[in-house]
């Protein structure tokens, strides 16, 4: 992983199924848009942003590997640049999805490996505890994404305790993502909590993520993306 990656990578923006694309200014400020496609009902609404000025990628967030099939992937490929796998438990899930993507790409007449693969990792206990390396699992794997809220919910606790402490499972998960990403030489994204909507808080969280080894952050809020763009501009001056 390049030591300069964290200085240049833009954030990811997650959108709910059916949610409108943000303004061009926001599209310019993100590495990729991640649109929810975890249910069959949400998949027909997927649409690539098109040939606008923005250079961001368009990714579909899909269900766990065991709940994904070639037919479902084939229905998505024409409109997306890649997929984000939810609840990744380890390399076996990546390899299983990689095989399905190869079949779907071949059926659609697309070049093999054309579809990027990112994975939400350490959001379930299995991946936090997995002893298996992620290095060399798939050439299309480009990033791991950590969501502290998802892991906390999966483990029956809160993202932050009542006393303001970070639960041990969240600390362990965060470390697992950074270490596995470093080992595999891929990017590591840290999902921002939804509540900070002021520049100082967002900037503090972003800086904390970078200082803890993450390449960039992810967000579910276009407002946070605007604030991040301002923070990045200040840091680069």
Automatic annotation (TrEMBL):
It holds the Pfam family HpcH_HpaI. One of its GO terms (molecular function) is metal ion binding. Coiled coil: none annotated. Residues 61-216 form the HpcH/HpaI aldolase/citrate lyase domain. Keywords: Metal-binding. InterPro entries: Aldolase/citrate-lyase_domain, Pyrv/PenolPyrv_kinase-like_dom, Pyrv_kinase-like_dom_sf. This is Aldolase.
């Amino acid at each position: 992983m390049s030591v300069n990656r964290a200085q240049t990578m833009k954030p990811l923006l997650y959108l709910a199924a059916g949610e409108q694309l943000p303004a061009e200014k926001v599209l310019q400020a993100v590495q990729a848009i991640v649109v929810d496609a975890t249910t069959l009902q949400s998949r027909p609404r997927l649409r690539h942003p098109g040939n606008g000025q923005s250079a961001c990628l368009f990714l579909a967030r899909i269900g766990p590997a065991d709940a994904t099939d070639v037919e479902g992937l084939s229905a998505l490929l024409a409109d997306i640049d890649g997929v984000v796998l939810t609840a990744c438990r380890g390399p076996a899930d990546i390899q299983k999805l990689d095989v399905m993507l190869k079949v779907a790409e071949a059926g659609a007449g697309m070049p093999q490996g054309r579809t990027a693969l990112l994975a939400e990792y350490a959001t379930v206990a299995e991946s936090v505890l997995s002893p298996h390396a992620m290095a060399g699992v798939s050439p299309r794997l480009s990033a791991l994404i950590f969501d502290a809220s998802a892991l906390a919910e999966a483990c029956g606790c809160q993202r932050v305790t009542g006393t303001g402490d970070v639960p041990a499972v969240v600390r362990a998960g965060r470390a697992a993502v950074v270490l596995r990403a470093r080992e595999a030489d891929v990017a590591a994204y840290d999902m921002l909590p939804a509540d900070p909507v002021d520049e100082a808080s967002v900037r503090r969280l972003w800086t904390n993520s970078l200082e803890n080894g993450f390449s960039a952050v992810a967000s579910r809020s276009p407002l946070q993306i605007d604030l991040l763009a301002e923070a990045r501009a200040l840091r680069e001056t």
